[in-house]
# Entry
Amino acid sequence: MDKNSMSEFLGSDRLSIVDAMRLIDKNSCGILFVTDENACLIGCLTDGDIRRYLLSGGKLEDPVISALNKDPKVARNESEAKSLYHKKNFVAIPIVDESNVICDIYVGEDSDNRPRASLQVPVVINAGGKGTRLDPFTRVLPKPLIPVGELPIIEMIMKEYQSYDCRDFHIIVNYKKELMKAYFADNENDYDISWYDEEKPLGTGGGLSLLKGKIDSTFFFANCDALLTANYESILKFHKESGNLITMICAYKNIAIPYGVVEMGVNGRIEEMKEKPEVSFLANTGIYIVEPEVIDEIPDGVSVGFPDIVEEQMKKGKKVAVFPVSEKDWMDMGQLPELEKMRKKLYGEK
# Structure
């Protein structure tokens, strides 16, 4: 690996966790090797390390060393690195010298084509909305059929689930539903789809009432405007091991405020000034893992948002939790600017 490529995998121990997240997002393997002031390796950091630290009560502003794996696997030469890499399915192996300075990083020859776990979990997609954020395109096509490059939004979402052997699809439809059904009737991929027709708009959660008696196991539930490229196996494992009724997948968003921000005290006294600060927060991706008993409690024919359903279950004392993912693992396809960014990310500049 050349020095320019290697620099994408390296970070200082003086970074904050949020700064480290940005660097992780830039490289292809989702890992950062952290070094001290003498360029010696002191640990590594992955999305999983960050997630575990935050779930234990840590903050994004904390120093990176707080979440560090301080016992990373290393090799002394490329042959040893290859052996370690394939033996334990690592994403990257640093090659270090006698002083523990990184000389090279081995990332494998074909890391993108590793097989994914066979989850075989049902997938429910809410595809009934009008897609007003994509107006005027949705005056002609329903939002799920808006193309992103070679495929429509909904098929891109379905293919991601299929890569984990999730092939049992349940799709809730309303607006321009006949176009949706016609598209898949002629689709050569022959998807296994059960359709559920809303007679009136039922919101992002109410349509699940149509599935009563149809699903009796844990299922993925997704709005038809979000593509998630995170590790579905890890999310499902977290959901099961935590004993959650609902797991909400949320993405860390970092937004730079393009103004100087002032905090005001009594009599207009300036308490604090920050020049173009960055705000970090968790955003709901609109993707969930849900236990089937949730469906039974949704009233028939009533419009309700799924976040309201989540809140109601929390009030009942049921276990609801967040699984945080990286910002780069979530693409919101419900907005025109984001749709274009997604097309460029998936297909490159054209």
The domain at 3-113 is CATH 3.10.580.10 (CBS-domain).
